[in-house]
Amino acid sequence: MTLPAGSRLGPYEILAPLGAGGMGEVYRARDPRLGRDVAIKVLPASLSTDPDRLKRFEQEARAAGVLNHPNVTIVYDIGSESSSGAPYVVQELLEGETLRAELAGGRFSPRKAIDYAIQIAQGLAAAHEKGIVHRDLKPENLFVTREGRVKILDFGLAKLTQVEGSDSGSKMPTATEPGVVMGTLGYMSPEQVNARPADARSDLFALGAILYEMLAGQRAFRGESAASTMAAILREDPPELSAGNRSLPPGLERIVRHSLEKNPDRRFQSARDLAFDLESLSPASSAAAATPAASRGWSRALAIAAALLLLGVLAGWGLRALRPRASSPAYQRLTFRRGTVYTARFAPDGQTIVYGAAWEGQPNRIYATRPGSTESRDLQLPDARILSVSATGELAILLGRQAVWDATGTLARVPLEGGAPRQLLEDVRLADWSPDGRELAVVHRVGGDDRLEFPIGKVLYRASQPIESMRFSPSGDRIAVSELSGSILTVDLSGKTTILSKAWLVAELVWGPDGREIWFTGYRKGEKFALYAVSTSGRERIVRREAGGLYLHDIARDGRVLLNEYVWTSSLAALAAGETAERDLSWMDFSLVTDIAKDGRFVVFEEPMEGGGPNGGVYLRALDQSPAVRLGDGSGFAVSPDGRWVLSRPAGGQSSKAHLLLPTGPGPPRSLEHEGVSETAWGRFSPDGKRIFFLGRAASGTMRLYVQDLDGSPPRPISLQGKQTDSPEGMPNQPFAISPDGRFVAAQGPDARIAFYPVDGGDPRPLPGAVAGESPILWGADGTLYVFIAEEAPSQVFRVDVATGRRELWKTIAPADRSGLVQIDTLVMTPDARSYAYSYERILTDLEIVDGLR
Length: 854
Prior knowledge:
There is one protein chain. By secondary structure, the protein is mainly beta. It folds into 4 domains: about 1-95, Phosphorylase Kinase, domain 1, CATH 3.30.200; about 95-280, Transferase(Phosphotransferase) domain 1 (Transferase(Phosphotransferase), domain 1, Orthogonal Bundle), CATH 1.10.510; about 335-565, TolB, C-terminal domain (Neuraminidase, 6 Propeller), CATH 2.120.10; about 565-650 and about 820-845, no CATH class. The protein is built from 9 helices and 54 strands. The strands form 12 sheets. The protein has a 7-stranded antiparallel sheet, with no helix packed on it. The chain has a 6-stranded antiparallel sheet with strand order 1-2-3-4-6-5, with helices on one face. A hairpin with a 7-residue loop joins strand 13 and strand 14 (about 375-380). Helix 3 runs antiparallel to helix 5. The longest helix has 27 residues, at about 295-320. The chain starts with 7 loop residues before the first strand and ends with a strand.
């Protein structure tokens, strides 16, 4: 279809053609209503003959229309041509040329390539935060304006239209078909080549290929045929950039390689991370405009000041020349297998490293290695966790079945050379040898509380929150402690505490070699794990931030740092009714499923980490793997039986005194106030959809289980154990299941065993044969309760007869690839148990020694 000048397309007057391609024809047009020129892309008429593709096009175009970023082309309008029905998109009119046209002139300078890549990454970050993935990023879809601004074109269109010809001239199938390769050859990620789901990390792979091409002047992956190009993407690395360009800034090659990792879990996990690393290489502008002097005296003053400044600069250069130059940190990798390193410590010789790891999905083992060795020696100890290594070469280990985040077991000691462990104390979480290697400080869990003891039996500190990390100072006079509450503090041997910093989520802390600072890996809300330090006077500073996360293990006496670079994700898998293969529904970096629609059409999940933004995000995604829809900020809990509402907690966290009902379709959200409740948490709809059950904090400060009608009447606490008491003690955030008639709630009681609590009052009835730690998932209409133990991996799901307690194994839940699998977080099921979805966490790590961190 060709539109002549002067013709009209909706309200727009066609002025002239701008170009044509596989994705349609582009025209310059005039919008008489606003008096501005626009670009109109008329897509192939074949889209209008396929209702499903047309609907998806409209959804994607509307989604792209909400983007408002200087590096993304603005979408003004969509419509369809009256005669053929061909859809069109109205966009801002750009003056300049595509990046492909610029690349025709050869490779770019590193400065220019970095500048362009930063702009592209920033545009991608804005789109990804809205839940929009491009999936066909390439130089043809990048436009450089005359002012040097890079604009990303065609968000939302790439996945709905025919992909342009590959290097071999062949056409690719439409991207809406399941199991079909989607993208443009040369820029497709390995997962796209394998016809697997593409997410934001696929865009980052494409950006890596484009950055490589800008720096090298040739494509990263190019074969003589489509098949050879695809093979190169899957199995080959492009030639080293530094071999042909010695002017590359240090670190740029690493960034490109990190972007082009074959495994998406090992790539940059967000466009913001990639932009951050690129910005660290971008030289800051030092140009400043000079203002003419107003008088001769002022000019003289400036001249004197300039002379003094010049003398100061020269003196500074002289002094700097006398100082040793600080070198960049040197990284040395120690492990080379796929899995997770949990804890690692330097041995007394400073060269041997003892660590515990689970490789290729196998149980955790304790190993020893040394720098320069590619192999590790299995110490032939039982399944245990390494806690500390003494100055005399003795290990403190934790025996027993270990949870990932809250490991509690039996403390034992064993020589580094091997032997049978000698058990010391039960219910221990952490331990650290005193500097002389004679005694152990321990975190001892007693009655649900954490007690810091040194020596064992003498309580120095009772923690108000679980203790996450604990280490002796080099001088042995103090112990550094981090709490789940976010506090970092020191405790001296008399029990005196000093709080140094607050509001952190700390993974691990270690004293610096001189004892003046405590180094730790952690983050504050909305950030990624990084390496920080806080002095004993409370002064904070950042030591190191990487694109991937960092986890600190130990610091040697000479200052070398032992740490993990890691990728930590939560993924979402689902099984649709009648199918045998699970589908990956993961979206951002930490997809946590919270519910599934009654008919199994879609899941509700939240993104609480970096990908969801500073306030987190509530999403809905259909099981057909169509794009996720962001419903709002905050945390999502449950979907109503009719599928129209999602129960959520607004942004602001647990301080919220109300729940928010988010519509899954058109319409505004609805606030549901809870009179007398100061804090809200997890909740569920009743089977008839007329009430909600939720956990909330009462005025007394205790967590309670409440029921409330959706008409806005005040919430009513459910009587537990025949009287008004707390909700299940110690388990306020555990899931519960509601009976099909809405009269009972199955929840964990104070003994962590499931019991049935009458909604209208009365004594609870324990589930016969209940197992401590099991959580209810679904109360079926046939009188069976589906239960599992969260945070196990893999996790067994049992069907339990509510009346008799008879149980049978229903299914074992785990992804096919168990490497780095640490736990199954959540599991949800449809009422008929034919569809289910679950989230699981995976941590993949590389253990490294870093020299030169200051």
